[in-house]
């Protein structure tokens, strides 16, 4: 459920007309709804309430949308953070998320990143190799600290999602193979400076079915038993993220968080572990839209080209993983048309939709891309010397610019003095 709806002929974000935001800020612009984020956080918290021993932690995957204003809203909802870089760690802390509610994931944490996060505090480092554990051990030993650690297990299950957002098969770079887990934990137990306490898994993103998640969690459950038998005191199981979100009525309908929670409750009943969840997309995906303006409509061989002022640099998902986004006129004229929706960037991949039946629009009309709150602005870049897209947060009838449009060309370039 979201709060972007047509009111008296024109789409609003909560109580704010999108036309007013486009007028004031210009386009393209990302618009986020606080009420939608809060609702999704609540649905997720409710779905996993009472799962595992102790209070479950819902650690929002910051990479999905790291805007500080978004993080502060989610912190207020009681979410922790799953971070994959020290930049994300700092953002989470700046938003008021307590260190004991932060897990540090990622396959390439550097020594500097680990040292800073250890000094600042984390609930757990999710290590992705024994080599990483050795590095963390040396850093913790030097700081005279004990680093809480769990290993990310690669369960070798197919997530049934797009290849570029699958992370839990043997051919993905993530985690350690289940077959090597016992050896890795045994070595970690012998290393100084480590508190071996957890285990984690994350098999991919935009999952429609929870069956692959259940298969992965069952493998994790077997490992927890084997690890305890080997002497490791596993108390924290981090089940990752990956739950898909609905993209439209005629698109695949992902399992609901309630069904996910019921499955988790069933599978983890005898684990005797505190549980952590890392949803990203589920919380913010449908809480954001990308607002863009039609530059012109150009005749095409099969269908007209609808050229909008947002490009693949603003919203990479269609180019990167063939993602489908709902596309609508902000103020529909009533008629429908079949068009190819493209951006201005000089790449054939700068295509948002081919042969899409949608509201008929004309040059100058406002159009929005739905489900753009996750992996949207955060992936934006300056290709074709385009500025970074601004972001707006809406709360009821109030709205605020929460990131300015950034022109990178007057930002970081330096002329060499030997020119
Ligand atoms: C990306 C990621 C997530 C979040 O995935 P969603 O599909 O957005 O829920 C969670 N955990 C890890 C380790 C990730 O890399």
UniProtKB/TrEMBL annotation:
The keyword Cytoplasm does not apply. It catalyses: meso-2,6-diaminopimelate + H(+) = L-lysine + CO2. The keyword Transport does not apply. Substrate binds at residues 281, 317, 321, 347, 375. Residues 55-284 form the Orn/DAP/Arg decarboxylase 2 N-terminal domain. Pathway: Amino-acid biosynthesis; L-lysine biosynthesis via DAP pathway; L-lysine from DL-2,6-diaminopimelate: step 1/1. SUPFAM superfamilies: Alanine racemase C-terminal domain-like (SSF50621), PLP-binding barrel (SSF51419). Its cofactor is pyridoxal 5'-phosphate. Keywords: Amino-acid biosynthesis, Decarboxylase, Lyase, Lysine biosynthesis, Pyridoxal phosphate. Homodimer. This is Diaminopimelate decarboxylase. It comes from Sphingomonas rosea.
